[in-house]
Please model this.
Amino acid sequence: SKYGHGYQIEVGLVNFSPEQIEEKASQLLALLSGPTPSTRNAYTDVSTAEIERIFNLLGKDEWSPRLLADSSMIFDKSGSISLMALAAWCLLEDKMDALLGFFSSHFGHLQVRE
Model:
């Protein structure tokens, strides 16, 4: 709809399936474990240091401040997060980054309000 000097678009994303989240969690665990077999599974917890390492290996260092800026809602008292929650967050960020890239390339300057 026309709004001020530009356009306003409301976008909603479809939730990811449990299978998609578990697959992403397994991929993240494989990144974290490297070539060494791990006794951990997709339902394990990861620390902030491990999250930063995962983001670095993914080439997504810019994600650390996004996730860690307001971590009080998703991290437990020990400062860790479940790998499944991290996987769901990563899937969402991938989609949002792609969506914002599309809008930027087609419409130029944009302002996002979440």
Q: What stands out?
A: The helical segments are 18-33, 48-58, 63-69, 83-107. The CA atoms of residues 104 and 110 lie 7 Å apart.
